[in-house]
């Protein structure tokens, strides 16, 4: 069985957040959605659980951070091409997201291509494409380390 990840995000307005994630290509799974939560599926192994603040608070004693004013996590997702990065990011902008919020311009091309956006609650996403040959060798290939 493939390991799965369920990213749980606190949201202010569940309907608005569901609409945002549907607009950028996620699919709602009604079997795991109700008035307090919505399961949004990105792939067979990745889902985002959108949880209203009262429901989210049942899972932790810690205060819920305001993602529009603080950062706790950056959510990076792989893309098949730079065009797919742009498509997701442009869809996020059209659905009310805030686009290109990273500190550095990542859109210059090269071996990696990415752009960042915030969802309607301020959670930061980073769709990213990596050149397949670079992905295969990695940023620090073992061959280079052993040649020294």
Layout of SSEs?
Elements: E1 5-11, H1 14-23, E2 27-29, E3 37-41, E4 46-52, H2 53-56, E5 74-78, H3 82-94, E6 98-99, E7 112-114, E8 117-118, E9 124-130, H4 132-137, H5 142-147
Parallel strand pairs: 1-4, 5-9
Antiparallel strand pairs: 2-3, 3-4, 6-8, 7-9, 8-9
Query: What's the main sheet like?
Result: 5 strands, mixed
Amount of helix: 25-40%
Please state roughly what percent of the residues sit in beta strands, choosing from under 5%, 5-15%, 15-25%, 25-35%, 35-45% or over 45%: 25-35%
Task: Quickly give the structural class.
Answer: alpha+beta
Radius of gyration from CA coordinates: 17 Å
Structure write-up:
The strands form 2 sheets. Strands 5, 6, 7, 8 and 9 form a 5-stranded mixed sheet that branches. The protein has a 4-stranded mixed sheet with strand order 1-4-3-2. The mean pLDDT is 89. The longest helix is centred in the middle third of the chain and has 13 residues, at 82-94. The radius of gyration is 17 Å and the shape is globular. It has 148 residues and is of the alpha+beta class. The protein has helices at 14-23, 53-56, 82-94, 132-137, 142-147, and strands at 5-11, 27-29, 37-41, 46-52, 74-78, 98-99, 112-114, 117-118, 124-130. Strand 3 (37-41) and strand 4 (46-52) form a beta hairpin.
Short description:
This protein is an alpha+beta fold and 148 residues long. The chain is 26% helix and 28% strand. 19% of the residues are buried.
